[in-house]
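Course assignment 3, question 2. Fill in each field.
Student: A.L.
Task: Predict the tertiary structure for the chain below.
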Amino acid sequence: MKQEATERETFLNPEYYRNRELSWLQFNRRVLLEARDKHNPLFERLKFLSITASNLDEFFMVRVASLQDMVNAGYQKRDIAGMSPKEQLEKISKVTHELVQLQYRTYNRSLIPLLIQSGLQVVGRHEDLTKEQADYADRYFEETVYPVLTPMAVDSSRPFPLVRNKSLNIGALINDKKKNKKEVEFAMVQVPGVLPRVVLLPAGNGQRSVILLEEIIERNIGKLFLNYNIVCTYPFRIMRNADLTIEEDEAEDLLKEIEKQIRKRQWGQVIRLEVEEGIDKKLLKVLKESLEVSGENIYFIDGPLDLTVLMKMYGLEGFDHLKKPPHVPAPVPEIKEGEDIFECIRRGDILMHHPYQTFTPVVNFIRQASSDEDVLAIKQTLYRVSGNSPIISALEQAAENGKQVTVLVELKARFDEENNIVWAKRLEQAGCHVIYGLVGLKTHSKITLVVRKEEDGIRRYVHLGTGNYNDATAKLYTDVGLFTCKEAYGEDATAVFNMLSGYSEPVSWNKLSVAPQWLKRRFLQLIYREGEHAGKGRKARIIAKVNSLCDRDVIAALYEVSCKGVEIDLIVRGICSLKTGIPGISENIRVRSIVGDFLEHSRIFYFENNGSWEVYASSADWMPRNLERRVELLFPIEDQRLKRKAYHILEGELRDTIKASLMQPDGSYEKVDRRGKEAYHSQEAFTREAREER
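Answer field:
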């Protein structure tokens, strides 16, 4: 027993682990490589570049901010890779500066010239406008922009203004025309988010032209400070700590406490300052001192600040030939249009693969339940929903129709807190029983239970998924969802909701494994069982598809069974703290990442089990937060036909030679070597198969 414990300690060596933040930056670099891939249509490349910028914003507001909090608090504990918070910040800063430089090299050297060739000119500087364009820009400023702007000067009576998180601003040095010209003052104006940032200019020479709103404002900024000379103007943008700190145990009303904390986001510590390259040194000094930003957190940008604007450019009309055709999800073959969905589920379990197959049956499941006179109750968990959610409308209708409706709305879903507060209040007003989540935990599970009175008694219909009940993201994210009315699943679903709404914990579960109490233990049992099979010369293999892998206990278990001969294939989209190719530790483990048109989001697990193979799907990644601090679900896929379908998803992604990248022993990723292999694009193959299956 002592020897076993010592062996397990070996697998916890920090040298065998990669820092999660640096691994995430590797992932964002893989997204950036899609923007650099000449095989992708030009406007798709713009979109990928925009995504890298959006990803980086959230990374700073949450992950970098959290590390900064640790440093400020003197927290010294090292991560699983043996790095202190200070060491992590230093390394992150170096890698991020390199990543940002690559972003702008991609924009300036690759994409801008191609846009010009394709008939779209992005006017980078207002000085480069033609006379006709300049006249148009000035009129646009006078008529549309000027009334919206609020110029802000700084002097003894007007302190440095609040600069809002993620807002784009123009900083200026100005001097009074009547005073000493050497005395300069700071002034600024926020670029209004209520106006389009991409402004179309009059066409000329068969070329369409656009300019960014901040350039029009800079051109006309003298009209905002009439009694002053404008010495210089430069755009700047800040990122603040947006990681909410909620003392849930002490909060009398969780909803009110979260509303209060959301407002505080605008005042969080500045953790990143972006300025235009070549910024005036005096202006930079004012920003640096007033915003209290250290040098390593300043990013000098060679181009437009905030590349998420490229998503707006992607939306310009007239360039469909430079985009991929819009994706239209295929119908789910087991559910014909107009059919009674409960009857379809009674015929047998249904496994849906989104977005290749439509999410509509999930919406219709709630809609039909809301108006079906035999439905007694609907219970559902909601983590992130769309802006105009048909599911919310159906739940409201169900309550108004007298159904017993219970909805757990997770208020702590990061950056969706305000949205979810609105939904929670609306559902309560409609007569639903709303639970705001559990103290100390996020409810991240995706489950719906419909209780129906039928001729042979009460029947429970269950939907379990790997993705949110969000009809918008269901068109972009790859997920699987299971419909079943098997009694064992129904009993477990009832137990889950009783646990969420009260304090009732079942003694045992039929089918589901639930975090934080049972799920991690279940995963480790399944992993170690493969190790036992391998140790006895039986068939043993693990395939796991997750978004992120950074739980030390899970990684140590994978290392341990790898040493016993278990072949392990991991499909990890983002963070992966496991290292491959360590002699005597991870030689039997392969890691691949797929970055494509759809965001890989489903979590599917395959265990060979000596030929009696098992397949599971889950809302949980292999991360400590999912396994220890969230309510998550793991569910088995048991129908043989559906098991084969789930395995086919894993098999297809392992075959991918177009969008897959393989982790190398040094932690870098390289595209699959296609020599001698067929060209296989898993996402395109799944799209084609879904259309053929109809």
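Instructor remarks: DSSP finds 19 helices and 27 strands in the chain. The two ends are 55 Å apart (CA to CA).
Grade: pending
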